[in-house]
Amino acid sequence: MEGLFSSACEVAPAGISAGDIGYWVALNRVLGIGPVRFRLLLTYFHADLATAWQADERELARAGLDQKTIESFLLQRVKIEPEREAERLRQEGVSVLTWRDPAYPALLREIDGSPPLLYLKGQLSEADQFALAVVGTRNADTYGQQVTERLVTELARGQVTVVSGLALGIDTIAHNAALEAGGRTIGVLACGLDVVYPARNAKLARHIGEEGQGVLISEYPLGVRPESGNFPARNRIISGLSQGVLVIEAGEKSGALITAEFAGKQGREVFAVPGNIFASRSTGTNRLIRDGAHLVLDVKDILDALNLFMLPLRVEAQAALPENGEERKLLALLGHEPIHINELILSSELSVPTVTATMTMLELKGLVKAVGSTQFVLAR
Predict the structure, then answer these.
(1) What CATH number should be reported for the domain whose range is 321-378?
(2) pLDDT, tens digit, 9 for 90 and up, residues 166-181
């Protein structure tokens, strides 16, 4: 588990130099260069984005960019100054993680279309690998508010980080409940981190980004406004950062359902709270349950499905005991098909007490999962 998260308190974290960060941000600001084209440039120029930024039309074509994108890039390039981009980040207190950084969230890295850059206010924590997205309608009723507060409070007290989109309604209730319970929360924005949307949540955003209980994240450069097309893209990051998505009150065309759809495509678990069949706010959640989402009546339904029922012990175990030789040997023998503990003992050539103790610790760390009392599989 080492390296999943680390402090992101500097503008240029480990993995890229202070001189390079301006070029990463400058390229990220160019309209038309998304994750696919960004990766083409990284590959062709061997991760030397300073050279990529200064490349001529011929080299850009060799890198795989089409003519329309090249022409657009060359027009935009003259208006963007990499050094100034890096300075703006410093002035705003915004840090950056890139694909090359070991601290880039491991769960997010594995999804299709993961952002080349993440802009952060606040710091990611090792604990944030155990995260659940909580989303829902912007027009929550009393039932939705009560359910969100109850579930999120219990999740936060159990050391599960709550991820949401800082929108009004369920998102806001979820963020606030996590903070009030002393837990951590991640707010994912559909705009630059210097543009808080909605404006009513400016105080909440400051609390998350500056009080040490969470972090604000965006894939968009500073100054980018919250355009309508940004929100569906933002939702893939909400689910991508999380082990599962909990939907609380969602209408038939709710944006929360887009997050749930992304979760399904990303191999995440989808959870939904049932609601009144006559209430339009519950149409989406009830249909999710009908179509196979986990029905949630209490927080135990979530913790059991995600194998997080012993999370406090797992967090403590990960912090106190780094992976050792015995753990590496046994993990190498495991897969997604159950293996009996006797087979692990024979194959590893370790003693019975060592294998038993090590498997217990690996289960506490969340790296393996017991299937019955004597068989094990990898947890993910």
Answers:
(1) 1.10.10.10
(2) 999 999 999 999 999 9
